[in-house]
Amino acid sequence: MVCGWWLGKMDRIPVGSTIAGAYRFLVVRVAAVLGLGWLPAAFYAAAAWFCLQRMGAAMLIATPSSAGFNQFTAIDFAALLLATALLVPTVAVPFTQTALGVPRERVAAHFVFGGREWRMFLALLRYYAVVVVVLAALAFLCQIAIGIGLPAPGTWRAGFAMPANLYGAPISLWLNGAAAVLLAIAFLFLTARFGFFLPASAAAEDHVTLRRAWALSRRNFWRIAVVTLAVAVPPALLFAAGVYAIEGDGLGEALRNAWTGIPSEGVGALYRLQYAHAGALAGLGAVGLVVMNALFAGASAAAYRVVEAAANAPEVSRQRTEPDFEPAWAPAQAMVVAARRWHPAEEFAQFQEPSQIQAAAEQPVAQHEAAYTGEAPAEEPAHLAQPAPAEPAAEIAPLEPVAPPEEAAQPVATVQAAAPIMAPPLDPAGAVAAMAMRDQINPPPPAAGE
Question: Cβ distance 35 to 106 under 8 Å?
Fold first, then answer.
């Protein structure tokens, strides 16, 4: 059973320290951020100014409801999105490498578009495509549900009436607000699962894919969502305040017209404001590019360290495993087998004197190791060698040897060929039993006084 609780705790992103790391990187490394980011920001400002001018010019020559207006705005919006995907890697990659601690010299200006930037550019294109497709599909479904699935405000359908107003506001405004909240939740989900780890993956790895970003953010969606909101909302509010300061009261009127009045007229008014203040809005967008990418670089680097440390940590297991040493019952089993194969009658019938048995008992234990493992000894032990017959005493006639059992009566060589003689087990009880059987087979001669 793997210790999943501990490993699960290890790969959890710390929300507080990640947010603090993002803002700390922007404040402490502000000199490096300015040196690495001002030149790409200048290129982005030029691209944003061109796209805003084009969209504003399209509004001046086309009516908001015409197909030409929609085509112009779609093309210019796609061009601005392409410029963003092309220039974001030129600041996100060096920012994230600096946040990860990669040694880098201080520079007055920096603009590099290499392999890492190219891989992140392709990943951003795929990420933007997923976001646009998902949000467009959800918006279309919401419009169908509001326009077709629900009855018109103030009318009855199947016994159900949709009120025209709710708490003093048109019901259409509440429904559009609910759809906008749903779209915001979907965008937050896609950003947390796909976009959050793209800078760190591009800065530290050789491959940048949406699948890798999805794997890095696994089991951390809510934490990344909180970090994303804490990092993105304050700069977004400052950016909105800057846009309102640039465009003035005309922005509020255009938004109200687009939300509650005629949407096409309100959108057209917004594009005319963008055309009138294209330069200031482009400069504000360039500043937002540097600030936002610096914050996300610090947050992504801090979270990437935690996730990678948990992935490279050794696996801790609570599962019982077999020991590296030999179990205690293995020698005991070998001794039992050796005891079954050893015949005391065959072994000690050839000894004539107790001194020979004592000499055999004093043999080193190392000579018996081969018997326990079932291997034949390199040379015949001394206690198995045929002893020389002892000279009988002159005054006592030699005793006739008692015939051993049927198996022991056979020649020793024949018995050894049939079943190899194993060494006796090393236990005192077995040695005593062997000596008693030897006395029964060959009783010792009587003493001189008997």
Answer: yes
